[in-house]
């Protein structure tokens, strides 16, 4: 499907992957419908999209409110007459051990990351069934879907739930006879967005660095690729594929390696970082951006390749050692 003059609804469009995807779609001539909580930031993104050649409609939306999401779909069809693609890119995060995470914040995270996507599907699918076609895209994560790491149990739980929801949704659409609707789950690894700057933090530690990261623009290219040629699952980048392969070969060793790196490389030693709810309940506002400033240039690419190679080699060695220990 060519994107020119196609109608693409994007939640989480004010920042990170959602914003990068909106700009990428606009450059291809799409009509973009932008959804997020911050009206001012959405207007800025809409202006950027129109400068790149697309038509844009900004609709302030809280994805946790079913009525707000239904109104988003209605606004899209009222302006452009249809919805060709609905991309659920809205997401929030909480850093903290499971027993340090306030229950209300965990509930809010699940409401945004899971129920928000379900609300999007409930609003988009009836429109797409009426058209006879459409594409629903959910931005999940390699974390939770394939691998695990400490201090992000809520986030990983939400992304695992999203993957399962998409699998079930494909089956239900087939049973409904809605063969023209495709469901695609995008699974990025680390991405250089403002996500960690905006995440709630209850670790008592500042984030020191991130895993080797991809650019939001790279993930946006994966999303626009899925719009042109839908596939059930898309892993973004060689690091994601290598990490998935390592986990398949030696899941225990891969989890242990990720746990060590998270504990000793990505977080500062235990300190006095204050607890923060991040942007769970309040829009990010002027701190919204495409990138998070963690860097994704050639040095990061080299680190990403080295880390992926090390993890894969560790998994291979572990699998071989396990095979030698197995009784004959």
UniProtKB/TrEMBL annotation:
> Superkingdom of this entry's organism?
Bacteria
Keywords carried by this UniProt record: Oxidoreductase
Q: Which Pfam families match?
A: adh_short
In residue numbers, the region (Disordered) covers 267-300
Q: Which SUPFAM superfamilies match?
A: NAD(P)-binding Rossmann-fold domains (SSF51735)
Q: Where is the Ketoreductase domain?
A: 6-184
Would the keyword rRNA-binding be found if you checked this record's keyword annotation? Answer: no
Q: Where is the composition biased (Low complexity)?
A: 284-300
- Similarity-based family: Belongs to the short-chain dehydrogenases/reductases (SDR) family.
Q: Which PANTHER family match?
A: DEHYDROGENASE/REDUCTASE SDR FAMILY MEMBER 7B, DEHYDROGENASE_REDUCTASE SDR FAMILY MEMBER 7B
Give the protein's recorded name: Short-chain dehydrogenase
The organism's taxonomy opens as: Bacteria, Bacillati, Actinomycetota, Actinomycetes, Kitasatosporales
């Amino acid at each position: 499907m060519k994107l020119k003059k196609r109608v693409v609804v994007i939640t989480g469009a004010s920042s990170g992957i959602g914003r990068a995807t909106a700009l990428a779609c606009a450059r291809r001539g799409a009509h973009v419908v932008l959804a997020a909580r911050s009206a001012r930031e959405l207007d800025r993104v809409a202006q950027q999209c129109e400068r790149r050649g697309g038509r844009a409609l900004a609709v302030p939306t809280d994805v946790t409110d079913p009525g707000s999401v239904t109104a988003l779909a209605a606004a899209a069809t009222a302006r452009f007459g249809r919805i060709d693609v609905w991309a659920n890119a809205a997401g929030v995060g909480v850093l903290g051990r499971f027993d340090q995470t306030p229950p209300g914040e965990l509930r809010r995270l699940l409401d945004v990351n899971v129920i928000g996507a379900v609300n999007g599907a409930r609003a988009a699918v009836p429109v797409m069934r009426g058209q006879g076609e459409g594409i629903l895209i959910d931005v999940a994560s390699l974390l939770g879907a394939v691998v695990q790491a400490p201090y992000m149990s809520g986030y990983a739980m939400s992304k695992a739930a999203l993957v399962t929801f998409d699998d079930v949704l494909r089956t239900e659409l087939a049973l409904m006879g809605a063969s023209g609707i495709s469901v695609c789950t995008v699974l990025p690894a680390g991405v250089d967005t403002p996500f960690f700057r905006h995440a709630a933090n209850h670790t008592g530690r500042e984030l020191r660095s991130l895993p080797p990261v991809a650019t939001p623009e790279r993930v946006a290219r994966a999303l626009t690729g899925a719009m042109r040629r839908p596939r059930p699952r898309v892993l973004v980048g060689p690091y994601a594929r290598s990490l998935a392969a390592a986990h398949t070969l030696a899941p225990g060793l891969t989890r242990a390696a990720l746990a060590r790196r998270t504990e000793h490389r990505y977080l500062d030693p235990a300190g006095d970082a204050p607890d923060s709810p991040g942007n769970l309940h309040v829009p990010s506002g002027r701190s919204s951006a495409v990138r998070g400033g963690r860097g994704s240039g050639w040095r990061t690419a080299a680190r990403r390749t080295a880390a992926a190679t090390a993890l894969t080699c560790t998994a291979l060695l572990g699998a071989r050692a396990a095979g030698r220990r197995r009784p004959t």
